[in-house]
Design brief:
heterodimer, A: about 260 residues, alpha/beta, Pectate Lyase C-like, six-stranded mixed sheet, five-stranded mixed sheet, B: about 270 residues, eight-stranded mixed sheet, 8 strands, about 45% helix, globular, cell division (chain A), septation (chain A)
Chain lengths: ~260, ~270
């Protein structure tokens, strides 16, 4: 069969951004791993089908150590899609590609730093088609939404099994968030109805994010990486209108009335 | 204009097949041309509940794959002339359903019937998605307990995203049918109350089917409950639900079998 006259299509690579979870192990590694296991026990399936980036900048580690760590995480069903903070030459065949352009995570005070991070730090850009090696060439910058207030308004209830992912800013739901549904926002989350699912605010590293709801029955609250499950929440808050925020290293919750 | 209705729930065992048979029969009794279609390929039950299991020759899969004509597979009900059944295959699985084949069968059914009622399999996979794919209206069958309600919520999300209607940007008409409801147990707090379920699912209520021995009896003798005992509480609830589907506005009540009669029966049996 001849393929001589096949019409040629121009190959197009479009930027596409995915929000990745950044895992940053801390020394001693064994303790960190034990903490991770304890955490995973409480939230089984949390890492399934989520892109995860391994940030090794805080961990003194050698070439073999990286491979062992990636394998350890693989056994825990955590698939690493990229590694930050190690020598790119270490990441050969069978290991995830190196990622650059991510900035080390840390507390963010200024709005500018926040914005910079939102745009760069944890937003991983992969060229399309996805099979192309992300490290091969500098990908195009992601298509930016026009500058303006970043918020997402949902006028329908969020149903069980749905995930609303909005790393760009606040999410407002006029209606309820069902048990088994999930809202992930870069900013704050406002629910004018019952919050029965999971609310994950400040996911791009924003400790000033807050969660508000009219009726509190949530399965999990998280702000800026800190989280609380329904089990660890005070029962006096149930069914009440509440707000949640981060104070130091803990999530605080109080009723609104 | 033919209407395609899917009876769905997510969770199994909540009464999809019973409700499909009862609603289908009720709509037919109200003068409509009705076909009930079993989409539960591999675990067919609708033929049993309709009392047609001994007359199945060809099935939905045969028609979808072009091995039989639609007219050969349709089974006309013995009691109600304008009610037909399109059975599922028991020997195949859901992969035997093709999207094009189902679309073709649906178009053909729309020419012949006023109501096409699709009995969805449990779950959220291919079978359930194909059953809801062509629907204009959905009846979400829910029991008053938390797992059933959450599964129904998941299904409502899929009705709003995975159906042709949703993909065209139109609004899917959805109704809640609360089955196996026991007012006494709900009052005691053993069961979710009607208002709780409505508050969580926030779709309009089509009817409340009370928990009743009549439903089990009807299934076992192979008759829709609206045929086997038309004056029983569940039959009256289904008949009202069928009227609401056709646009009638009726106040939703919880029909009850006379309690005294029930106790009378119990005591009578014990004395005997």
């Amino acid at each position: 069969m001849s393929i001589a006259e096949r019409p040629r299509h121009a190959l197009r690579f479009r930027g596409r951004s995915f929000l990745a979870l950044a895992l940053a192990p801390e020394p001693p590694l064994a303790d960190w791993m034990a903490d991770l296991d304890a955490w995973s026990d409480k939230s089984p399936g949390f890492f399934v089908s989520r892109p995860v980036v391994l940030d090794l900048s805080a961990l003194p580690i050698d070439r073999d150590g990286v491979a062992a760590l990636v394998a350890d995480l693989y056994r825990r069903d955590i698939r690493i899609m990229g590694v930050e903070g190690v020598d790119a030459n270490w990441l050969g065949l069978g290991l995830p590609p190196p990622l650059t352009g991510g900035r080390p995570a840390g507390p963010l005070e200024t709005i500018d730093a926040q914005r910079a991070r939102r745009e760069a730090a944890r937003t991983v850009v992969a060229p399309e088609p996805a099979e192309a090696a992300p490290s091969a060439a500098a990908p195009e910058p992601p298509a930016r939404a026009p500058e303006g207030p970043h918020s997402l308004l949902l006028r329908e209830p969020v149903r069980s099994g749905q995930t609303i992912m909005f790393p760009e800013g606040d999410v407002t739901v006029v209606g309820s968030v069902a048990s088994g549904a999930e809202i992930v926002a870069g900013g704050s989350i406002h629910v004018y109805g019952a919050l029965r699912g999971r609310a994950i605010a400040g996911v791009t590293g924003n400790p000033r994010a807050q969660i508000f709801c009219r009726r509190f029955e949530a399965e999990l609250l998280a702000i800026d990486g800190l989280y609380k499950t329904a089990d660890s929440l005070e029962s006096s808050l149930r069914l009440r209108p509440i707000q949640a925020w981060v104070d130091g290293d803990a999530i605080q919750i109080t009723t609104l009335d | 204009m033919a209407k395609v209705l899917v009876v769905t729930s997510g969770k199994g065992g909540v009464g999809k097949t019973t409700s499909t048979a009862a609603l289908g029969a009720a709509l037919a009794q109200q003068g409509k041309n009705v076909v009930v279609v079993d989409f539960d390929v591999g675990l067919r039950n609708l033929d049993l509940v309709m009392g047609a299991e001994r007359r199945v020759v060809y099935d939905l899969i045969n028609v979808v794959q072009g091995d039989a004509k639609l007219a050969q597979a349709l089974i006309r009900d013995k009691r109600i002339d304008n009610l037909c059944l399109l059975p599922a295959s028991q020997t195949r699985d859901k992969d035997a359903l093709t999207e094009d084949g189902v679309a073709r069968v649906m178009e053909e059914l729309k020419e012949k019937f006023d109501w096409i009622i699709c009995d969805s399999p449990a779950g959220i996979e291919r079978g359930a998605q194909l059953a809801m794919r062509h629907a204009d209206v959905a009846v979400v069958v829910t029991n008053p307990e938390v797992s059933s309600v959450r599964d129904s919520d998941r299904i409502i999300g899929m009705l709003d995203s995975k159906t042709l209607k949703a993909e065209r940007g139109e609004r899917m008409e959805k109704h809640l049918l609360l089955t196996r409801y026991d007012p006494l147990r709900a009052e005691r707090g053993d069961m979710l109350k009607v208002d709780d379920v409505l508050e969580i699912l926030s779709i309009p209520l089509l009817g409340i089917i009370p928990e009743s021995q009549e439903v089990l009896r009807a299934s076992n003798i192979g008759q829709p409950v609206t045929v086997s005992n038309i004056s029983s509480a569940p039959a009256r609830a289904y008949i009202d639900a069928a009227k609401r589907l056709q646009g009638e506005t009726l106040v939703v009540t919880i029909p009850a079998d006379r309690r005294a009669g029930l106790f009378g029966k119990l005591f009578g049996r014990r004395a005997a």
